[in-house]
Amino acid sequence: MSRKVTVKSEKDAHRKMDNCFYFLLNLTSVSYQGMPFKTHHIGHLLSAVSRHPDIAALTLNSCSLAAYSGKAIAAHLPDLHSIVSFSLANNPICDSGLRALVAGLQSSCSRALVTLDLTNTGLTNKSVPSLNRLFTLCPALVSLDVGCNPLKESGAMALARRVPKAGAIRFLGLRKIGAGAHTAKKLVDLLGDVVSLTGLDLGGNNIESEGVKAVVGLMQKRQMRFLNLSGNNNMGSDSLILLLKRVENNASLQELGLNNCGIAQDVEVLAIVNAIIKSNSLTHVYLRRNGLSRESCAKVAEALKANYKMQKLDLRGQDCDHAEEKKDYPAMHDPRVLHNEDRKSH
Predict the structure, then answer these.
(1) Are 77 and 106 in contact (CB under 8 A)?
(2) H/E/C letters for each residue in the chain?
(3) What is the mean pLDDT of residues 300-329?
(4) pLDDT at site 17
(5) Is the pLDDT of residue 322 over 60?
């Protein structure tokens, strides 16, 4: 039976750290989130983890791990043979911390690593050589998230040129890396050569119309299953409709993120409705904070009746006025729809 430990408080952390050899028994996942760690705590934890071959996932998100912590983690990486999923999101390890981690990955344990999350870790374009080294050290790596790091154009392009040679990458997280429209187009064009790619997160990059059209081209080349373009509120109505037309005819896309994209025009709403109705693969559509009227939300929700595969339609944060909130639309009661009334419970 798989077991997981998640630490939520400092008291909890000390209790479990003191009894780590006991509580790690038969575990498959260890998660420390939002807990500040000291270097000796990291060593203690990783030493315990290394003695339990069943542990496959290790999450150390938001633990205040700085650059020097990278060396502490790297020292134990050669012994973590079973780890296939590793997350260090929201820790300021920076470029030097990543270099230390990559040095520690030069062992047999790296062969098993499948998923690596480095979201918001203070990486810059100086980290690109280390990131590129990861693809050589971790041939089984299928998911890499470097979102919310200021890689800028030079870093993004250097990384994109290396990804096609990796061979196994299925998901690449590039949210909020500082890529503009021109960079996004060149970036997506390069990723078109990644035969294994099925997921891409370009949210918050101001890719504009030029970038969206490049994404449409990518969808024609690759069997994309996940696509996030949230936070691009200047992509242009024509480009958005072109994208949604591509979604209609796409047989693989399952999740589409269009949060905070300034979707409000009737013709755009109609394009979303048609995409949901005609798609044979969509299961999740995210449309939060688009300023849609209550009536427009109801039209989109109504489309779910024609798509039994849809599991979630997120319409929260539309800021409907008070009169709109009072209007009752039966389609909004579909349990698959998340809307403004749900905001307190989610």
Answers:
(1) no
(2) CCCEEEECCHHHHHHHHHCHHHHCCCCCEEEEECCCCCHHHHHHHHHHHHCCCCCCEEEEECCCCCHHHHHHHHHHHHHCCCCCEEECCCCCCHHHHHHHHHHHCCCHHHHHCCEEECCCCCCCHHHHHHHHHHHHHCCCCCEEECCCCCCHHHHHHHHHHHHHHCCCCCEEECCCCCCCHHHHHHHHHHHCCCCCCCEEECCCCCCHHHHHHHHHHHHHHCCCCEEECCCCCCCCHHHHHHHHHHHHCCCCCCEEECCCCCCCCHHHHHHHHHHHHHCCCCCEEECCCCCCCHHHHHHHHHHHHHCCCCCEEECCCCCCCHHHHHCCCHHHHCCCEECHHHCCCC
(3) 82
(4) 46
(5) no
CB contact at 8 A, 197 and 170: yes
Phi/psi zone of residue 256: left (φ > 0), alpha (ψ -120 to 50 degrees), beta? beta
Question: Looking at residues 138-148, what average pLDDT do you find?
Answer: 94
Q: What share of the chain in percent tops pLDDT 70? A: 84
Q: pLDDT tier at 343 (50, 70, 90 boundaries)?
A: very low
User: What distance in Å separates the CA atoms of residue 284 and residue 307, rounded to the nearest whole number?
Assistant: 11
Confidence (pLDDT) at 203: 96
Domains of the chain with bracketed CATH = 53-342 (3.80.10.10)
Can you say whether residue 201 is alpha, beta or left, with left for phi > 0 and alpha for psi between -120 and 50 degrees?
beta
pLDDT higher than threshold 90 for residue 233 = no
Residues 250-262 have pLDDT tens digits of 899 999 999 999 9
Cβ atoms of 125 and 158 closer than 8 Å: yes
Mean pLDDT taken over the chain: 85
